[in-house]
Amino acid sequence: MNTAPLAKLGMISADVNLVLAGLIGFGFGFMLERAGFGSAIRLTGQWYGKDWSVFRVMFTAIVTAMFGIIALDSMNLMATEQLYINKTFLYPQIIGGLLMGGGFAIGGYCPGTSFVGLATGKLDAIFYISGLMFGAFLFAEGWPLLEQFSTAGAMGTITLPELFGWSPWLVGAVVLLIAVVGTLGANYLEKKLA
Amino acid sequence: MENIEIKQQPYWPNILAGIGLGLVLLLAYYVAGRGLGGSGALARASAGLAHLLAPEHTEGLTYYSRYFENGKVDFNDWLVFQLFGVFLGGLFGAVTAGRFGKAVDKGKRITNGQRFFFATIGGILMGWGARLAKGCTSGQALSGGATLAVGSWAFMLALFAGGFITAFFVRRLWI
Prior knowledge:
heterodimer; A: two-stranded antiparallel sheet; 8 helices; 68% helix; B: mainly alpha; two-stranded antiparallel sheet; 2% strand; globular
């Protein structure tokens, strides 16, 4: 019988779930720090092709968690239909992604890593985090103009296996292939540009 | 204190840090049924700060109503606790690796003041965009990527495209 996700199936209380959120966040912050992602110099190395750590770490993490979820599902150890899957709103996600890539290249961090930067003692991270909050405030101010666009290209909760009609294992294998080929390409480019 | 200062350790290899990060993400799904997030708690915090400074105006902002509970911004939230943990985990990681210290991360050709200005601009773009895209690198790219959400993969491609294109124009900031 499925016992996970623990909080969704009543295995743990809401309070315990919040405490575990703190512990999970601790692990998240620790791993980001060990990856070197508390440094804007290291993070932005990605955008000049000199240091592909962002790509490699991110894809390794995605592949690890993805196969973990698929495996737990196929062994009936986790009720994956209970997982929160991001809904697809194609256009705001693409426009938002482009702007955020710009914000990353200009500001040097993404939101999660800026907190690790702050924890590491980076003064620039304080300004970046203030900017993040101000940006969210500007969005709230502009919401009446944005509300309609924010759901443009709505496709609901849809995953790549559903879109292509493939099994999750097959899509997983393709993601793994992209990660491996991407890593080999990244290693080659790094050597060439270093 | 100087004599017990920890010698700076190298970063972990990408694959090790990546597997560690992936296992933490898997644990989040196993425990809470949801992924990780970076920007959500900060948007909530921006609502709290705005409410402190201009209560009536902020209560009138429809977008912020999702963060309110009984007339106050509700900080009893999974992402808030998680982000607090991120800070502590980052601090623990930096201290135990001998990497903790006051610093400004920037390219050699700009001043600290310029770096602070552009860090703020970049943060505003990221914070604004993250509300539009309903998540950031953690919530969309990492968590949505691992759960194979269609829109999150489109987001990820757009994020990398935006990063590479913009970086071309802001080379001076970093190189």
